[in-house]
């Protein structure tokens, strides 16, 4: 069983920065894809950014140029550097790691609030 633990959320003013991190523990297999998703109140969960084991990345249009995803495949960790934050970035951010036939796993979520 893989357990994901997220850290780094909090309250930040518009224009500020935060860095989220997600570490895996438990039965560790080779991860195929790692990513970050977010869910704002009253909205569906949406993709923010993903990164493959080969280093390919994909971002939601709303965060391109402001957010950067990175990973350490040897440690099964993934991070999200968030710059130039906007109030509309406020949401609970979830880490997801995909292990192929070993399954997909989600973190518990970390709150990001952008407000003055």
Q: Mind telling me the C-alpha Rg?
A: 14 Å
Q: Helices and strands, in N-to-C order?
A: EEEEEEEEEEE
| Count, helices | 0
Count of β-strands: 11
Q: What composes the largest sheet?
A: 7 strands, mixed
Unreliable stretches covering 5 or more consecutive residues: none
Percent strand: over 45%
Rounded mean pLDDT is 94
End-to-end separation: 40 Å
Structural class: mainly beta
What is the helix fraction of residues, given as a range?
A: under 10%
Morphology call: globular
Structure commentary:
With 116 residues, the chain is mainly beta. The chain is 0% helix and 54% strand. The protein contains no helices and 11 strands. The protein has strands spanning 2-7, 10-12, 18-26, 33-39, 46-52, 57-59, 67-72, 77-82, 91-98, 104-106, 110-114. Strands 2, 4, 5, 6, 9, 10 and 11 form a 7-stranded mixed sheet that branches. A 4-stranded antiparallel sheet has the order 1-3-8-7, with no helix packed on it. The mean pLDDT is 94.
Topology:
Blueprint: E1 2-7, E2 10-12, E3 18-26, E4 33-39, E5 46-52, E6 57-59, E7 67-72, E8 77-82, E9 91-98, E10 104-106, E11 110-114
Parallel strand pairs: 2-11
Antiparallel strand pairs: 1-3, 3-8, 4-5, 4-9, 5-6, 7-8, 9-10, 9-11
Structure summary:
The protein has 116 residues and is an all-beta fold. The chain has strands at 2-7, 10-12, 18-26, 33-39, 46-52, 57-59, 67-72, 77-82, 91-98, 104-106, 110-114.
């Amino acid at each position: 069983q893989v357990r994901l633990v997220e850290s780094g959320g909090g309250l930040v003013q518009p224009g500020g920065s935060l860095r989220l991190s997600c570490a895996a523990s438990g039965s560790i297999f080779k991860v195929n894809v790692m990513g970050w998703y977010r869910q704002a109140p009253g909205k569906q969960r949406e993709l923010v950014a993903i990164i493959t084991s080969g280093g390919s990345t994909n971002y939601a249009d709303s965060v391109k140029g402001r957010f950067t995803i990175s990973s350490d495949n040897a440690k099964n960790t993934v991070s999200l550097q968030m710059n130039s934050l906007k109030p509309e970035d406020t949401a609970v951010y979830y880490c997801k790691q995909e292990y192929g036939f070993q399954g997909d796993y989600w973190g518990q979520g970390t709150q990001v609030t952008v407000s003055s």
